[in-house]
Structure formats: structure tokens, C-alpha cells
């Protein structure tokens, strides 16, 4: 008998975290290593945050920054607890695989594990990237000492998306192509469906623009029919197949991102380009604090680990009133804005 | 017969905006003047944003900043439109003076005018300040050409609060004392009630700390009983009395803030103090984007003027993972944090 899925996922994300952090450290051997920060959740669970930060480099207005990365976090968490009936009811709206019991009054145990990363490089020509892969389980209440309870519902979610300040079409194509190639063996309908979902999710309504140039985003992937995938579409359906898909997408992160980072981190840049990057980071903050479901859920959860949740925010961000940057026709800044207003099919 | 209240309020906020902007410009005669930016709302209304920004000063990591202010906006808006029945129903929860008609299916005209300001000085020893005074009316539908319809409900709201990065007790006392003296002639119960409300409102639950060191905050001030004021409390009740109170509070802004600004803007500061100021501004951004009702309402309103709504955000903000700044016992940073965790009675 194979190991329980929760154990397989835990082993995988631990290994993936290690590989990603190593790849980033290798890129910038002169910088301090990531800080490994393990924590325990009093309500149940644990995690390890691997964080890169160079606070000395930019709080001073006079010190020239030197590191490749400016802020980065590659975090894993493995938590469990109980969901009150109201939360289960709410969750059922989007996760139809949760068994429906209209008379349910008891809380149900849940288990969630995942890897979540955000990398903000310093060079304005190098894109910010975000990725997140997670596994969720709801189990039967454990009246007895047997552990854990039978799995009532489970699903995977996740995705990966790129947020440049300056648009390099070849970077966007490489990123999307690598992700698509990781998806295609599991069904060619997957990438287009999840690419579209990504464009819809990472959208800032009050700006009427996307946060970045997309990637993939998905949730609720399990053995049930999926609202975003046609009933007859080839797709992974059983736990092992879906987990194989998750691993394929997760493993694609390094080859999708590191090469474009290597390409851009040594490009010269001007104060004007740095300014535009900080304005784009302001938009990143706006999306994450106002719309991102994970962030909102985290901030509203008593006892949540705020430092992990707000890890995704950039080291610095900038807001200008009626900024002229990005509006000049034909400028490199305007080239990006155009694509954010109208998502592109990169592959 | 005196002028309609909406006209009186408009005249007052126009004059107050002019006085405040002049006082700020006088403070810093070497900086460029505020940019006056008048706009028209297609759905009805107009406004003038007076904005200070020195974008050249800080996007470069090497240019030393020189201006006293870093970002500031002193805005007025005078808008009108119609409220759908759902919005009226929602509004009634907090504004009991709105006539209750369970069968209401028609939209009602509204009118709103106010002044709103946020000033972010550059020196970490100088506090950020926010103030806002506003008047709201709901009127009868105008079937005929008579204009405007009879006022069905009206109220005033507003307040003023201080957000230092470094705590100077004498500044906090001066600020609160000046505001209290503006409130007291209208009833000594007003300042304590609205000071408490301010502490409750400008609170960041996920940080378990206040945004700043308070001031006053109030809403729904009209001729009806008020949830925050005892039935037998001396308080302004009719429109003219309440408007006189608003003017007293509004006029107190300059003497409450400008002297403490003058006191701090020439103090020397270190990169470490600048860093702490930017971290505090990150918290300011968190409060405004995640919790502030006005900001949330604005961002969710189609056609709202995003540039005016996000005017309140600082020029730059900073996020550090598990920052050690503010945690060292006995440090000036920790002194502020302590007060943010436990609001103080300054007068």
C-alpha cells in the first residue's frame, strides 16, 4: 500500500522547497543565504519559511544595493485543525466534493499542506514571480484514537504567475511554454483552462489591469467533475494522477523562472526604471491586500502567522498621484501596461 | 432665510482647503507649490485635489531628499447621484435617521461633500496626519423640475488623527488638547466619546495595534439620538449647531498639526530612523487597503476616482520579514509600539 497522500505531499514540498532555495542561492553566491525559519502552529501544524531579505541595502537613500534578490520567501506549511460548520458550508460553494449534510452541526477535521513562494528581484528588468501548490483534505471526525479519520473530501490547487515591470516577450513566452509543457502530458485542455483562470484571478478591478502577465491558476482539482474542464476532456482524475500533475507543475518552476532571471539580473538600469518598478510593486501590494483570497483569509484568521502571510509583499513599494510614468505612448512602460490591460496568448 | 446646508458646507470646505494648503506651502517655501487638480465626476459632481509630490527626490537611491513634505493631498469633493434601494437598506444599519420604508423600490438622490487630507512629511520625527470632515444628505426623489428634493436624512461625520513613527508625548498632548478644546464648547462628552471611537476605528486587527496615536472619529451626527452619546449629554443637535461644531473641529486642524510639524521637520535623522518610518508606512498601507471603510467603498465603486482614493497612501512603504526594528526593549521604536498596543489618554 502506498503512503497516505498527505505524507507524499509533505515529502514532495519539502524537497521542492530545498531545490528552489538552492537554485536561488546558487544564483547569487555573494549574498547571505536564505534564513530558514521553522515554526509551530499552536492550534496544530508546522512550517518552514525560507526568506531572503537585505534590509541594510535600501533603507538608506545613499547605499547602492548589490544583491540580485531584494525580498523572497519560499515557504511550506503543513497544518491541521477543525472547520466549523459555517466554514464547511461556505467552502462547499466552491468545492462540491465536500459531502453535503444539511443537518451538520459538528466541526470537521481538515489538513492542508502546501508550498508558496514570492520572489522580488532587485533589477527592474527581472520579473517578480509567485507560485503556490497546495493539498487540502477534510476528514471524518475522530471519535476514537484512530488517526487520521477517513478522507471525506480532498483537492489540489495552485499555480504560478509572472509579474514583470518591463515586458520581454521572449521571457513571457519561455515562462508560459515551460508551464504548458508541464501541463500537456496530463491533458491539453489543462493549460488553456488554467491560463484563462489565472488571467481572471490576478486582476485588479479598480485599476482595470492584470497584476502581471499570467501563468496558470487552478483550484478544486479532484476526482469530481471540474467547472473549468469539459466533462470529456482528458485530465488527471485519481489522486496519484493529480499529484503527478502537481509535481510536474512544481518541478517546472525552476526551469520556467531561473533562466529568465539569469538573463536580466545584470542588465544596467536607470533611476527612472527603478521608480517604475516600485510603482508596479505598489500595484502588487494593492492586489494582495485588497483581493487575494489567501491573504484576506489569512488576515481574518485569528492566530494566523502574519509574517508568513505578508511575506509576499515587496521590500518597498511606491505610490504617485497621477503618475505620468507608464502613460507616454511608445515607451517601454506603456508597452507593459497595454499587455496588462489585454492579456496575451503567449503560446 | 439662511442658505441650504449643502451650500454652506461647500463654501466652508473650499475655504478650509485653501487655508490648509497655504499653511503647508508657507512651511516649505523652497518646494514646488501644491498641484491644484480640479475634476468633474461624469455621474454628477466635482472636486479639487491639491497634491504635493516630489517624485524625483526618492526614486533614485542616491539623491538626497530635500522637501519637508514627501506626499500630501488636501482634497474636497462635492458629489451627488442616486442610491439604489439595497444601498439605502445597508446605510440604514448605521444611520437610523434614514426613513424606513420596507416596500421601497425606488432609488433616492444623495448629496455628499467633504474635505479629506493626508500629509506624509519626509522627516521620520514628523508625524503623518489625516483629517476628514463630510456632510451627507438623502433627499426625496425629484419627479418634477424642482431642485433639490426635500431632505429626508442628513448627517455629518469626520475626524482627525495623528500617526507618528517616533513618539513625542508633548506632540501627542498638543494635538489632542487642541482638538479637545475645539470640541468642548459643544459638550464635554463629545471629545471622550469620539476619541474612543477613533482608537477603535484606526485599529489593525491582524497586527493587534493602532494605526497611530488617535484623535477623534465620528459619524452619523444629526438631530437624532446618537449611539455614542448619552441621551442627556450636552451636544449639538440642530443642523446649524452641528455645522458650527464641524467648523470648530476643521479650524482646529492647522493649530493642532502645523506647530508640531514645525518642531520636527529640521531634526537630524539616521538611515535606521528612515527605515522604521517606512515600515510604519507599510502598516499605514495595510490599514487603508484592508480596513478603511472609505477606501474599500471607493475601490468597490465603479467609476470612482482611484487617484483620489489612493491619494492617502504614502510615497513609499516598506515590508520586512520578522523585522527586529521596534522589538528592542527600551528603544525609541519600541516606545511607539507600546503606545500603539495600548492607547493613551493624552489629555
From TrEMBL, chains A, B:
KW Oxidoreductase (keyword) present: yes
Pathway: Porphyrin-containing compound metabolism; protoporphyrin-IX biosynthesis; protoporphyrinogen-IX from coproporphyrinogen-III (O2 route): step 1/1
GO molecular function: coproporphyrinogen oxidase activity
Keywords: Oxidoreductase, Porphyrin biosynthesis
Keyword Methyltransferase: no
BP-aspect Gene Ontology terms: protoporphyrinogen IX biosynthetic process
A single GO cellular-component term on record: cytoplasm
Annotated EC: 1.3.3.3
EC top class named in words: oxidoreductase
Chain coiled-coil ranges: none
One Pfam family recorded for the sequence: Coprogen_oxidas
Protein family membership: Belongs to the aerobic coproporphyrinogen-III oxidase family.
PANTHER family from the UniProt entry: COPROPORPHYRINOGEN III OXIDASE, MITOCHONDRIAL, OXYGEN-DEPENDENT COPROPORPHYRINOGEN-III OXIDASE, MITOCHONDRIAL
Subunit structure and binding partners: Homodimer.
Protein name (record): coproporphyrinogen oxidase
Organism of this sequence: Phanerochaete carnosa (strain HHB-10118-sp)
Source species taxonomy: Eukaryota, Fungi, Dikarya, Basidiomycota, Agaricomycotina
Amino acid at each position: 500500500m502506498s503512503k497516505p497522500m498527505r505524507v507524499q505531499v509533505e515529502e514532495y514540498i519539502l524537497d521542492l522547497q530545498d531545490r528552489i532555495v538552492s537554485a536561488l542561492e546558487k544564483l547569487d553566491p555573494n549574498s547571505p543565504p536564505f534564513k530558514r525559519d521553522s515554526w509551530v502552529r499552536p492550534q496544530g501544524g508546522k512550517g518552514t519559511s525560507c526568506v531572503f531579505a537585505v534590509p541594510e541595502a535600501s533603507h538608506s537613500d545613499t547605499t547602492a544595493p548589490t544583491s540580485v534578490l531584494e525580498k523572497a520567501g519560499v515557504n511550506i506549511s503543513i497544518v491541521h485543525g477543525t472547520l466549523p460548520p459555517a466554514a464547511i458550508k461556505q467552502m462547499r460553494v466552491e468545492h462540491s466534493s465536500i459531502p453535503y449534510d444539511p443537518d451538520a452541526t459538528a466541526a470537521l477535521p481538515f489538513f492542508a499542506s502546501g508550498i508558496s513562494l514570492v520572489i522580488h528581484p532587485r533589477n527592474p528588468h527581472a520579473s517578480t514571480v509567485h507560485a503556490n501548490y497546495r493539498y487540502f483534505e477534510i476528514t471524518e471526525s475522530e471519535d476514537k484514537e484512530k488517526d487520521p479519520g477517513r478522507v471525506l473530501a480532498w483537492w489540489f490547487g495552485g499555480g504560478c504567475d509572472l509579474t514583470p515591470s518591463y515586458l520581454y516577450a521572449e521571457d513571457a513566452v519561455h515562462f508560459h511554454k515551460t508551464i504548458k509543457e508541464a501541463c500537456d502530458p496530463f491533458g491539453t485542455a489543462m493549460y488553456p483552462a488554467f491560463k484563462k483562470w489565472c488571467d481572471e484571478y490576478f486582476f485588479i478591478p479598480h485599476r482595470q489591469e492584470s497584476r502581471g502577465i499570467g501563468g496558470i491558476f487552478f483550484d478544486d482539482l479532484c476526482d469530481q467533475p471540474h467547472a473549468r474542464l469539459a466533462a470529456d476532456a482528458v485530465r488527471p482524475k485519481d489522486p496519484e494522477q493529480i499529484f503527478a500533475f502537481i509535481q510536474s507543475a512544481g518541478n517546472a518552476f525552476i526551469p520556467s523562472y531561473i533562466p529568465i532571471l539569469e538573463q536580466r539580473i545584470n542588465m544596467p538600469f536607470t533611476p527612472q526604471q527603478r521608480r517604475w518598478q516600485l510603482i508596479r510593486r505598489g500595484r502588487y501590494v494593492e492586489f494582495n491586500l485588497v483581493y487575494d483570497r489567501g491573504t484576506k483569509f489569512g488576515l481574518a484568521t485569528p492566530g494566523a502567522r502574519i509574517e508568513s502571510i505578508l511575506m509576499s509583499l515587496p521590500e518597498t513599494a511606491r505610490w504617485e498621484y497621477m503618475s505620468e510614468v507608464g502613460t507616454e505612448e511608445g515607451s517601454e512602460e506603456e508597452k507593459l501596461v497595454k499587455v496588462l490591460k489585454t492579456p496575451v496568448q503567449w503560446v
